[in-house]
């Protein structure tokens, strides 16, 4: 059994603490929200850990993570280890690792997948960093990952940054898969040739080529709301989808499906599209085509 | 000077009659609307023409055109010639030609481009059919096409159907070009780095690689409405865009730009997208992500 | 236990016969290949069945299926039932059903998914047709579908044609999902930030959001050939992907992901692209950009 | 008449010097290639100019431009003005402007469009920077831009960076338009319904909605090589296309056409696609589909 500091007890961090404790590990959590925190400050959390320490960061990517890493650099000691399990951009990892290395503190980046289901099912983990650090944190990873062969729910993807890189690509793929099901669903709904769309989708869960965990979730959603009309077709995107497309551009890799999925989300959030106003204006100019006037 | 029957005096047909008459040709028009018609019926129109007759059809594609061809088959005589100048699907042309051939009547299909500007600028023409029929109708084509070398505003594209095929592809390209400008416009608007977006677009009219007639029209539209916010981003599509994509599929030709332009129009007409509701539902299922409830 | 005629003993039909027999059903197969056939002709097959008969067709879509239906119409009797389990276009089903109905023979269309794995895992089934016919054939469906709750591997999608419609959409989605993984794989390979790409993908099998049966197959493929360089990036497409896009167009449903996946396959089969020669020619014209000369 | 230093006498800079001199301006050019240079060094060039000086940079974007700006900062004096006419990323402009401002030297960024045709036709110009600097350089801009109303070939797009931003979007649009024509061309070639594809495209030059300068160039290319088979469908991309897509992502603007055009170029340069090998591998796994073995 190991001892772990855990910074950030939101939806993900809170559940991870549960899973880790259920596996018998000792977790000292810190969160700004005192209702969930096991410690009064980062400093207090660190002081409750006996060295060499392992601290897992599970706070929002970007400035919050950067801030936490900086503070931990002050508080931790040579030989300690920090793991960033948030959705950081892979380019941040080198900066974090360098900062901590200047204090003799090790660094791993760990992409974590599985959402709210991870508490019970385990989390898919992709880790970047030195093999010796990975080895040292393995009891933590083993507690967090799903049952079954380790290599089916955990990978050591490469050196620092590779874990978040793998997670970024994972999320890009996730966008594409979700959009593929979504387009199929809309087509089934629109064509009205299939009478019972939810039954068809439920019937895809076994034996078919498209069976997947996301399909199971779609079936759950349709069980609760067969036409999915309790919610709006308004979809946020996280950094990872955007970074995946950036990486496609940087590496000259065609990514038509991943970009289409991202753009569909952008479109879903537009009340009115400037681009389509331009197309309407052009049609109007050359064809005298009827256009919808704003406010009409 | 030649004599022509012209069926359909809507926005296009009406203007074409003007242009033909301005060139000195005799046009007997027929339209169901007596205010614009020169004849009381198709039969009356035909009776006012001396053989061998040429009749130009300018009515909506599909059933209306088919109906007109069928009636003309009854009314015309061996050696007469029918030209379909509407936006018919190229597969209709063979049917029309065969039907008329059974009466000894010739057939040409003619794609007509240029919109409301054609009356003054001339129309771009793409013709399918027998060379002898094309030759016979050339005075008409010469009056309708723009000034300048014939081969820059007119083509004999091939046998029956080839004219409408060329026009279909023309329109597919048109969708793509319009969407390219539109995406650029939206980006300029969104990024707010360029202060005067209409001025930049106006400044693209000369010397640049993207100068075009459609750009000139966009400049006109922006002159009238600098943010294009007098109209909605709601865009219809005509058959040709869809048929172009069908043809891409039939010929295994990748058409990512042309399809993206068509899909952008489909999206522009959706108040809410079933596909994006499915994506939102999936995100909700796995991540407990906040979603917009319908009606909220 | 029921008795079934099975026409077509290729890769799919052969395996289905195995699975049906393993479940205790009696199958009289017919195939043009005498090595696998249980009968010498369609007529012989029909004569070996006692009425009321059920005959399952598992031959290529289009003409071969149409031909088989026509012959069965001659051979079968009132009260018999035909099931088309091939990859027919949903619009063929109405024709087939009408033809058989004129002989008093019933008709079901059944989309079958699962590939070569279906023999052992069971096949995902989507059925169109009358409820009474579905009920009658249920022992067959139950034998073919996977273990587990019937509604998770089988659906009665609607009236005639709905089964193949559901299968068509299934395949469109399948294209999109495969392409999503494929783009992610290429990005991982190209960026060279992840050291062990197969290990990362293997590690996605449990706990992650992207886990699926197709992912399991990708892991299998990478186990056999870690860089997938024993084969060419040349991918065929079947009718269903194309028909899905046709349906998207017909129903004005945006399908950017499904179309991108189809177009990627088209592109994969082109040695040289006429479109890209045109782009190269344009760049050459305006910029004097260096271009690759053919054969250089 | 004004005096101008011009750094970089490649394809673009050389032609611009010609056009400026033809307009009566005095140009002192510098290029590392002594065959075309009017001066032996940047220092020599600067020394030949009487203050307050204007120096136009026309060297490759990125490091070469940055280096030139840095050296000019050393050589120029308070009140001088530098114009970067290259294809720099808009984010470089602020850095360049700040560096020069520390020496009291002004800065304008100018996007230049028109390719090799600019020498005779004039160049489309988009400028970013202070109005007073723009005013001061106007004689240069007027000499470089096309005949006709200034606002149709020149724009002051906004503050520093806006000129290159406008040029970046211009190029993104250019990619989309070129791809639209290219897909149409390939479809016409593939379908073989139009007999004379070059004649049809030539016939689009007048009257049609798709007429443009790029279309005129396509006609020129087809005049020289009717099937465009003297060159390969291998197309480079410049930074601007990539940056446009980056900006679309950064601003959450859907850009399906511009991204499709960029990805088509990426694909055109791949001998074999890792993504499509993955799709082939998946098909092979589930369906036992025939795949092309590498080297076969």
TrEMBL record, chains A, B, C, D:
It holds the Pfam family 6PGD. Transmembrane segments: none annotated. One of its GO terms (molecular function) is NADP binding. Residues 163-296 form the 6-phosphogluconate dehydrogenase C-terminal domain. It comes from the Bacteria. GO terms for biological process: D-gluconate metabolic process; pentose-phosphate shunt. Keywords: Gluconate utilization, Oxidoreductase. Belongs to the 6-phosphogluconate dehydrogenase family. This is Decarboxylating 6-phosphogluconate dehydrogenase. It comes from Amycolatopsis dendrobii.
């Amino acid at each position: 059994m190991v001892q772990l500091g855990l910074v950030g007890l939101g939806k993900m961090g809170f559940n991870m603490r549960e899973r880790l404790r259920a596996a018998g590990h000792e977790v000292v959590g810190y969160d700004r929200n005192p209702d969930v925190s096991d410690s009064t400050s980062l400093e207090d959390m660190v002081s409750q850990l006996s060295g060499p320490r392992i601290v897992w960061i599970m706070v929002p990517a970007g400035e919050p993570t950067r801030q936490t890493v900086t503070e931990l650099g002050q508080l931790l000691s040579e030989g300690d280890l920090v793991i960033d399990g948030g959705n950081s951009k892979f380019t941040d990892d080198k900066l974090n690792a360098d900062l901590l290395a200047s204090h003799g503190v090790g660094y791993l980046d760990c992409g974590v997948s599985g959402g709210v289901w991870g508490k019970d099912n385990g989390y898919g983990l992709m880790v970047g960093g030195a093999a010796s650090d990975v080895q040292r944190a393995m009891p933590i990873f083993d507690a967090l990952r799903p049952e079954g062969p380790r290599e089916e729910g955990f990978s050591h993807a490469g050196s620092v940054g590779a874990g978040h890189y793998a997670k970024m690509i994972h999320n890009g793929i996730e966008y594409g898969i979700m959009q593929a099901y979504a387009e199929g669903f809309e087509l089934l709904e629109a064509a009205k040739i299939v009478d019972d769309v939810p039954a068809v989708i439920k019937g895809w869960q076994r034996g078919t080529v498209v069976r997947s965990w996301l399909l199971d979730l779609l079936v759950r959603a349709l069980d609760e709301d067969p036409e999915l009309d309790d919610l709006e077709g308004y979809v946020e995107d996280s950094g990872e989808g955007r970074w995946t497309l950036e990486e496609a551009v940087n590496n000259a890799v065609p990514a038509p499906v991943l970009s289409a999925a991202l753009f569909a989300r952008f479109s879903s959030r537009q009340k009115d599209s400037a681009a389509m106003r331009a197309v309407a204006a052009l049609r109007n100019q050359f064809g005298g085509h009827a256009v919808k006037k704003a406010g009409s």
